[in-house]
Amino acid sequence: MNIIKKASRQEELKLLSQRIRNARKEARLSQAELAFAIGVSDKSVSAYEQGRSQPPFEKLKKIAQCTKRPLGYFTDEETNESAIVAKLRSIEQELIEIKKLLHKSSDD
Question: C-alpha angle with apex 53: 59 to 26, nearest 5 degrees?
Fold first, then answer.
């Protein structure tokens, strides 16, 4: 069981490190610029991007702000956001159907 948890944790850290690197590059920031903006050394940013270290949550929030990414992009809540959007669309469709029924019954 511990091996599975450890492997899962390593996969999560690897994904996080890739997302930090991609977001930084897309924001056209150097490691040094991002480091300065979030209040750490460029070596810390390098460690985050290599998966050797995980940024504290407060630093992760600052990374999100600096790279103009939603925090969910880094915390894997993006999947949850997609589910929420899908649910909202479903609710909107149901409301449209209810409005049609109400409109139809008021015409009768």
Answer: 60
Instruction: Look at residue 53 and give its three-state secondary structure.
Output: coil
Say if residue 31 is in the same domain as residue 62. Answer: yes
CA atoms within 13 A on the CB side of 46: 4
Mean pLDDT of 88-93: 83
Token pair of 50 as six digits: 């290599």
Residue span of the structural domain in which 43 resides: 2-74
32 and 6 together in one domain: yes
CA dihedral sign of residues 22, 27, 32, 35: negative
If one compares 86 and 97, the residue with the highest pLDDT of the two is 97
pLDDT digits (tens, 9 = 90+) for 45-66: 999 999 999 999 999 999 999 9
